What does this fold into?
Amino acid sequence: MRSTRLVLAVVSAILVAVPQLQASPQSHAVEQQALDAAVQAHVSAADQDRETVRLFLERSEVRAIAGKYGVDIRRAESAVATMSAAELASVAAQARQADEALAGGQSKVTISTTTIIILLLVLILLIVALR
It folds into this structure.
């Protein structure tokens, strides 16, 4: 009787273990290459946004307005390096809008563009100050 139980226990263990050993390993829902591509796209977008803001802050019109209103442009430039991707996306969108207005053939800065530039500079400084 004791040997029958032992045989039954061994056979049961083998029957339970064999299907699990033969099962193919589950594939991940997302391949590693897709994850790598998504991370690279995110980093690339953040780098492009950072470059957009940096180039915008280098414009002579922006520097003149910053100087007129007492905004330290160097502090704003260093703040760009510490921004998160979401903050950069928001600031870069505003910088693109102001840059298009300046590059769109306007020979002088209008009130609305000046306001956008000031708000953009203040936003950059506030983001850094609130961290």
In short: The chain has one domain: 37-129.
